[in-house]
Amino acid sequence: MLSPSTTLRTGFIEARQVVGVLALQGDVTEHLMALEHCGASAIPVKTPADLARVDALIVPGGESTTVMKLLDRSGLGRPIVERTRAGMPLWGTCMGMIVAAHDVVGVNQSTLDLIDITVRRNAFGRQNDSAQVELAIPALGNTPFPAIFIRAPWIERHGRNVAVLAEREGRGVMAREGNVLATSFHPELGTDARVHQYFLQIVRQQGKASTAA
Amino acid sequence: METGTVTVKRGLAQMLKGGVIMDVVTPEHAAIAQEAGAVAVMALERIPADIRATGGVARMSGIELIRSIMDAVTVPVMAKCRIGHFAEAQVLQQLGVDYIDESEVLTPADDNYHVDKQVFKTPFVCGARDLGEALRRIAEGAAMIRSKGEAGSGNIVEAVRHMRAIGDAIRELHITPKEELVARARDLGAPVELVTEIARDGKLPVVLFCAGGVATPADAALMMQLGAEGIFVGSGIFKSKDPKRFARAIVDATTHFNEPEIVLEACRSLGASEAMPGLDIRQLAEGQLMAPRGV
Fold this sequence. Notes:
The complex is a heterodimer. Chain A is built from six helices and 14 strands. In chain A, the strands form four sheets. In chain A, strands 4-3-5-6-14-13-12 form a seven-stranded mixed beta sheet. In chain A, strands 7-8-11 form a three-stranded mixed beta sheet. A two-stranded antiparallel sheet of chain A has the order 1-2. By secondary structure, chain A is α/β, with parallel strands linked by helices. Chain B is of the alpha/beta class. In chain B, 43% of the residues lie in helices and 13% in strands. In chain B, helix 2 packs parallel to helix 4, helix 2 runs parallel beside helix 12 and helix 7 (157-174) crosses helix 9. The interface between A and B is large, with 39 and 37 residues. Strand 9 of chain A pairs antiparallel with strand 1 (2-3) of chain B.
């Protein structure tokens, strides 16, 4: 039996839990601010030492070609894969979805292979087709989510254990496989915190599970 | 579904933060830039140092060239139009480039007015030497701002001036009492709504990059520490003796700008390769300066 102090909660997650945002490139600050708004402790992650301090990781929006190279050079790629396979909650937004995917259609691009999906890059078009869409996400309730898509990917194929949580024009744009969540849109650019709260719920459940173990 | 909103136009620039955008003049350059880790490329017919050397009128690049660069890479592709040349901008939007740079590096088409950027679906980046200039461009619809360091000079001093001027003015506004904001807007030559927003938030409402004069990894680290959210490199890469190494070293120094041991490693990786030759801006005739174009 644990003493009450170890399970003291602030906001939505356990007090001792820290969420990291991969900070090699992209809209890092936006995620950090959204997490803070939800009452979570958040830090940018640039090095393996930073990664060792966090209980969960968000891979933000950015350029996937660039970040895959920087992951390799910074020595962060392998520990992220090891931690995530061992149960660390991970959420990728847009570029993060590509980085976490099993593979990418049409281009020769490496990924971390953390969720069993195949994605198509810039699937909805180039920047002129970037759009704001009212998206139905049943897992978040009946109110549609104001989703911001920027040169966004879609899910072309998904494995049996992957739950597709939202679709746009018949294509998967939000999916979850266990501790890994992926969205092709950018909740961190808007003011609706429901996807961040949904991820923090996964973080909290994971924290409880590991405490129990 | 809504496209071309302020949110998605500013949003793409937010995705580029912490990255390096490189000038390229061929699809092969573009591939080198992407391989080195560039977050976007700027498709150009001639890099600024060559525009400076050649003289004459510099215009929007050829469509075939821009198209071939769009086909060569997966990162976003930007292209330049002349200041005030809204028809060039319309052509670039029709072509489908991801960002338009209304740039002082090209010969201005209009002495008095910039493009009305709000009516475009394609986002624009514009140069600014100070806060007033930045806010006028944002009022016209710019979704991203960059400094206006003297392009093609390999000399960082102008970009430093601009970043310091913009940063100082924002910090000053942030502590300015509300009743003084109308007068400050008058002095800045900028809309009071934007001035009030800056005073409240203590930052620009759009992403701010550094451009002009970046030639080495240390230049990039300097500008990031001065508050730039990312770096444009024009002549610095493809006018150096070893573009591949310079490209990668400048990316590494930008990513890890506040970790001197990594910037040192980036500098060391250049070996004996030389940076682009530089120019003393004080010795340029007034007519040769690009930064004062379009204020």
